[in-house]
């Protein structure tokens, strides 16, 4: 591609070292899409005849179909996907192919291709996020009446509906999808026509080319357009945050399936045994997802580090953006998909949850609230209930069963209606504030998510 200036060929080692086609071939669809749009721009600028443009486009379509069918052989000699496709096109159609690179550099070409690629990857990830949200909502709905302990500091705190806990993750995933959408907004300008660094003296209608590729407009600064990758960092960051959420969900699942909690059962299809200990059933999916989150973080840091010392504009270092991007896309998609499948096949151990939530200490705060409603300032109410808890602990009598004499000496105002406080149904019904887990609140949230997710999946959108 640059034989004019060179007398010798690069060494074999250099070819192996410098090639990116072994992984950037993944952008072939976008590369061909971009080239076809560019050919149209060249036609409008009078550089190509209609026949030449036609030859280029049908040649590119042919190559694309061969790549799709696995019939195309990429060559590392030709470095990257861009040169592989262009060289093959020129081989097939002759002089018209050699005109395609007019007013274009691989620098604006690759900057465009990555944006297009991330755009389509975002669609797949958003759909996979919606699928996982649906599995969470289904699991929540199948168990919408189940109450279990909510934890802070991994200590039993207050009763919540199991559905409320699952829907917390649905909220997190919704923000993850939102972050992806936001990041697409800053990918919405097309770099094509920025050339290597300073545009071209052959002036194309960049806005038209951009629009034909579905961009909102053309980038405003050619140096920024070819040298910047902040959109890729933002994308990796969105994926890393989504991974962090999945990792927290993994941790919950790992705890829930342990015999210490025994709240959840995973199907055999998503667990493994031990080669040594016959009784084991391990939550490998959740552990792997938690583990892979490290890669998602690593990929973000890899690119941030690659970028930090780069002078403007394009430097070959930028070729190192692709592997972290592709790896994060593959990793997160795989995690989302397997997690959705695993949760769809999981079952809840209602007895274990009911036993855990029957601990009256979970309603100590409700007791303090009762005193508040009877005029005791909260801090004092808190102290009184704290004393009752200490009394229960030292005597071994459950909080809900403390004798009247103890109540009268520590918190006389709690006497009427004391035992009713420990009814779990009452406790749940009382949590009526927006966002709190009352039975109605949870049913409402379930209905909201079912509607929201079905609209997302609607083919009309
Ligand atoms: N494979 C290269 C990359 O991924 C394409 C751009 C090459 N540009 C250049 N001036 N060598 O960044």
Strand content: under 5%
CATH architecture title of the largest domain: Up-down Bundle
- Counted up, domains total 3
Q: What is the multimeric organization of the chains shown?
A: single chain
Rg on CA atoms, Å: 30 Å
What is the CATH homologous superfamily assignment of the largest domain? Fumarase/aspartase (Central domain)
Q: How confident is the prediction overall: mean pLDDT?
A: 96
Number of strands: 6
How many H/I helices? 19
Tell me the strand order in the biggest sheet: 1-2
Structural class comes to: mainly alpha
- What is the H/E order? HHHHHHHEEHEHEHHEHHEHHHHHH
Helix content: 55-70%
Low-confidence stretches: none
Identify the CATH class of the largest domain.
Mainly Alpha
Shape: elongated
- Euclidean distance between termini CA atoms: 44 Å
Small-molecule binders? arginine
CATH topology of the largest domain: Fumarase C, Chain A, domain 2
How is the main sheet built? Answer: 2 strands, antiparallel
């Amino acid at each position: 591609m640059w034989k004019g200036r060179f007398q010798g060929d690069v060494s074999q080692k250099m070819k192996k070292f410098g090639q990116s086609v072994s992984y950037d071939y993944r952008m072939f669809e976008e590369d061909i899409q971009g080239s076809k749009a560019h050919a149209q721009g060249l036609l409008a600028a009078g550089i190509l005849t209609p026949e030449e443009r036609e030859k280029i486009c049908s040649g590119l379509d042919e190559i694309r179909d061969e790549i799709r069918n696995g019939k195309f052989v990429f060559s590392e000699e030709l470095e990257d996907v861009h040169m592989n496709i262009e060289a093959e096109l020129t081989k097939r159609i002759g002089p018209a192919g050699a005109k395609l690179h007019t007013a274009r550099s691989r620098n604006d070409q690759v900057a465009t291709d990555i944006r297009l690629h991330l755009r389509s990857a975002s669609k797949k990830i958003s759909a996979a996020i919606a699928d996982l949200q649906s599995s969470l909502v289904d699991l929540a709905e199948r168990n919408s009446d189940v109450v279990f302990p909510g934890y802070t500091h991994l200590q039993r705190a207050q009763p919540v509906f199991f559905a409320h806990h699952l829907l917390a993750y649905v909220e997190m995933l919704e923000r993850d999808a939102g972050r992806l959408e936001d990041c697409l907004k800053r990918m919405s300008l097309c770099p094509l026509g920025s050339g290597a660094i300073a545009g071209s003296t052959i002036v194309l209608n960049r806005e038209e080319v951009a629009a034909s590729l579905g961009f909102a407009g053309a980038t405003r600064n050619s140096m920024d357009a070819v040298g910047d990758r902040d959109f890729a960092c933002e994308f990796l960051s969105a994926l890393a945050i989504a991974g962090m959420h999945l990792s927290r969900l993994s941790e919950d699942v790992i705890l829930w399936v342990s015999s210490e909690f025994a709240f959840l059962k995973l199907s055999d299809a998503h667990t493994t045994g031990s080669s040594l200990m016959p009784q084991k059933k391990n939550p490998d999916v959740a552990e792997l997802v938690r583990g892979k989150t490290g890669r998602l973080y690593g990929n973000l840091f890899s690119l941030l580090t690659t970028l930090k010392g780069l002078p403007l504009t394009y430097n070959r270092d930028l070729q190192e953006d692709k592997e972290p991007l592709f790896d994060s896309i593959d990793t997160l998609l795989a995690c989302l998909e397997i997690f959705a499948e695993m949760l769809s096949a999981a079952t809840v151990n209602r007895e274990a949850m009911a036993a855990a939530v029957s601990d009256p200490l979970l309603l100590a705060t409700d007791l303090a609230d009762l005193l508040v409603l009877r005029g005791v300032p909260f801090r004092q109410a808190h102290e009184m209930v704290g004393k009752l808890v200490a009394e229960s602990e030292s005597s071994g009598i459950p909080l809900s069963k403390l004798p009247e004499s103890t109540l009268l000496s520590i918190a006389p105002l709690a006497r009427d209606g004391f035992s009713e406080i420990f009814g779990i149904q009452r406790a749940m019904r009382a949590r009526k504030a927006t966002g709190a887990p009352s039975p109605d609140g949870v049913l409402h949230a379930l209905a909201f998510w079912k509607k929201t997710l079905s609209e997302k999946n609607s083919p009309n959108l």
